[in-house]
User: What shape does this take?
Amino acid sequence: MGDSQAVIIGVGDGLSAALARELAADHALTLAARSQDKMNALTEEIGARAVCLDATDEAAQDTMQRTLDSGD
Assistant: This one.
């Protein structure tokens, strides 16, 4: 993994999963979706971090951003 971070919000098994596979080699990748189940296989496959997130919840977005900024 490189030093660059990438975050994909709204991960499913289509376009976002394909994008995640492309980015994983060169980025510290975080995948976010409302359902952990949708991300489990993909995160294991590519070594990404998974975050349960409702993208319509601004407080949850802020919490995720602070977590990413802190490197936790």
Summary: Residues 58-70 form the longest helix (13 residues). Residues 4-70 form a domain with the Rossmann fold fold (CATH 3.40.50.720). The chain has a mean pLDDT of 88. The chain is about 45% helix and 25% strand.
